[in-house]
Amino acid sequence: MISALDTSVLIDVLWGDPLFAAASRCALEDSARAGALIVSPVVVAELRQAYERDEEVVELLVDLGIHVIPLETRDGLYAGAVHRRYRKAGGTRSRVVADFLIGAHAVHRADRLVARDRGFFRDYFSGLTVWYPAP
To answer: What span, in angstroms and rounded, lies between the C-alpha atoms of 92 and 55?
Structure first.
């Protein structure tokens, strides 16, 4: 089982979100026991902004056993198409392309996505299994 991770779940665990940290930690641990943990470079970028040095992020990923799997052209094309549908349907600019890239990456590389924003990913990425770590 390959589990892609959304940034939200990692942030919950790393910064001890009072509501979601325990559930996200359990989801992360269960996913690691079930198979591989992966993230896209988008998640790496979202994590990086919170750290002083690149090495801190790399060390964190290694310590958690998370593999960074590169984006491919098909991910960008799929994310762009889904984003276009979202905007045409009246979606606001509050959803950035990064969210769509994370979803597209998970569709093409993982058996499931572990994320707190299950509604968005289920609504826009049909067929993507989303594991929501409920508190």
So the answer is: 35
